[in-house]
């Protein structure tokens, strides 16, 4: 296996974002299948996703020669064992790329190859584990949508807290013109997709099966809606079924396709952590949303945060880390109190009053460091605003049980 290319983060080249006023140019018009495209479509059924050995053969021979080698019409790849070839050649007998391409076209889908204008070039960072091609449903341009994309992933059996956060983050990222990428699974994935769709944003589902299949079945309506309003993407040809290993390999595509991965909820053995660690290995950003320290579904996120991942709690913070220079999240601030709006001299007089009891004008002036006449003027201002009250010749804070306090202002 060769060393993958140096990590590459897709740069914003000024392309229109999904919610911008500029029109999305959409996918290129259908192209006539070339021998290379047909061969890659066949290999997508023969080769398991993420197989580095087959990826090396593909790099060395090219797609057409490798297809011929696996069908027995050409010499075998250098160093290929008889056992490995026999298994792949058995699969090759069932490959019918023309039928797969026809099925995809009937769905309104297309098959992308490396080098196509719509191919997201950041996937090339996967080296010999790069997909042989991508089957895509949806009218948007995959490359443009992926330029400003973030993955939101997490537990399938999530809590209400996690689902709420995922939907809120998805909607917030949509409002800021970012594409939300996830795997269309139950739990966090589904909540992220739904939150994005509800906000009218761009979302992309990466499947571990054929793009004509809805998995899980309970998300059939959601996946169809994503295909109508966003994009559904997969490495496997129409009709292919998901397996455990295909879910794991699907995660590498999510990690490579996006600028960063946000884990919302994840247990210690969650597949979402695989996505985050793969993102780290590719030089992408990893982020995590903290949860209750007593929750097992947040234990994996907290472990991630002890490493190189960054804490995020809002869409603004996600964009600050994954976006361009100048995409700064607003500084978190508490609620503005009435006393925060006082001009400096009045604030000093207010601070000079004792917390309990009353004080004479001269004592307040001495404590505030202001002249007595200035102190007297500011005390009357504070009295008008409802902060202080006069008690004979002395001044004190307005009591909480003072019925006139709310009428006069207060804190």
Automatic annotation (TrEMBL):
This is DNA-processing protein DprA. Residues 111-321 form the Smf/DprA SLOG domain. Residues 346-390 form the HTH iclR-type domain. Pfam families: DNA_processg_A, HTH_IclR. SUPFAM superfamilies: MCP/YpsA-like. The gene is dprA. InterPro entries: DprA, DrpA_SLOG, Tscrpt_reg_IclR_N, WH-like_DNA-bd_sf. It comes from Streptomyces catenulae. Residues 24-33 have a biased composition (Pro residues).
């Amino acid at each position: 296996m060769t060393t993958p290319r140096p990590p590459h983060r897709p740069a914003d080249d000024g392309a229109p974002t999904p919610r911008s006023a500029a029109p999305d140019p959409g996918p290129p018009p259908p192209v006539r299948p070339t021998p290379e495209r047909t061969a890659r479509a066949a290999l997508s059924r023969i080769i398991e996703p993420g197989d580095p050995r087959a990826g090396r053969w593909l790099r060395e021979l090219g797609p057409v020669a490798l297809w011929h080698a696996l069908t027995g019409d050409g010499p075998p790849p250098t160093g290929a064992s008889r056992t490995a070839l026999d298994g792949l050649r058995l699969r090759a007998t069932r490959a019918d790329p023309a039928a797969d391409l026809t099925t995809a076209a009937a769905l309104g889908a297309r098959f992308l190859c490396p080098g196509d204008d719509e191919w997201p070039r950041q996937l090339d960072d996967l080296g010999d584990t790069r997909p042989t091609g991508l089957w895509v449903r949806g009218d948007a341009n995959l490359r443009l949508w992926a330029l400003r994309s973030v993955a939101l992933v997490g537990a399938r059996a999530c809590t209400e807290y996690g689902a709420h956060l995922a939907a809120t983050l998805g909607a917030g990222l949509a409002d800021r013109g970012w594409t939300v990428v996830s795997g269309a699974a139950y739990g966090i994935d589904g909540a992220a997709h739904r939150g994005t769709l509800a906000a009218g944003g761009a979302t992309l589902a990466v499947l571990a099966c054929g793009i004509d299949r809805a998995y899980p079945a309970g998300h059939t309506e959601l996946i169809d809606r994503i295909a109508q309003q966003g994009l559904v993407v997969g490495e496997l040809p129409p009709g292919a079924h998901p397996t455990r290993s295909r879910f794991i390999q699907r995660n590498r595509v999510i990690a490579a396709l996006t600028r960063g991965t946000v884990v919302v909820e994840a247990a210690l053995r969650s597949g979402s952590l695989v996505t985050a660690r793969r993102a780290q290995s590719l030089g992408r950003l990893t982020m995590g949303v903290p949860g209750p320290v007593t929750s097992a579904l947040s234990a994996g996120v907290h472990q991630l945060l002890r490493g190189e991942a960054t804490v995020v709690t809002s869409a603004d913070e996600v964009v600050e880390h994954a976006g361009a220079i100048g995409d700064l999240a607003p500084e978190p601030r508490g609620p503005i109190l009435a006393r925060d709006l006082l001009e400096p001299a009045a604030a000093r007089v207010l601070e000079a009053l004792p917390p309990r009891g009353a004080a004479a004008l001269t004592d307040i002036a001495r404590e505030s460091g202001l002249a007595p006449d200035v102190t007297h003027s500011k005390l009357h201002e504070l009295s008008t605003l409802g902060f202080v009250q006069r008690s004979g010749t002395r001044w004190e804070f307005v009591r909480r049980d003072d019925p006139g306090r709310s009428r006069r202002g207060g804190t």
